[in-house]
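Hey L., structure's done. Input below.
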Amino acid sequence: MEPVVQWVGGKKRLLDTLKFIMPKMYNNYHEIFLGGGALLFNLKPKKSYSIEKNKNIYMIYKNIELYSEKI
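Output:
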């Protein structure tokens, strides 16, 4: 899945480097600066926790969540 929005400071261009330095196994994935979600959507972890302080971006994800529950 591609990032939902393009975000300043997005991690899309750093995905290879970030995945290289990350542990190969982990129980939970925590994303404290979700933004476009490039790393989260690329990793597709089984269990994750995400935070987005920007209310506009948060509402985009909230609406996606609400819409996806209806289909």
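The mean pLDDT is 88. DSSP finds three helices and two strands in the chain.

-- N.
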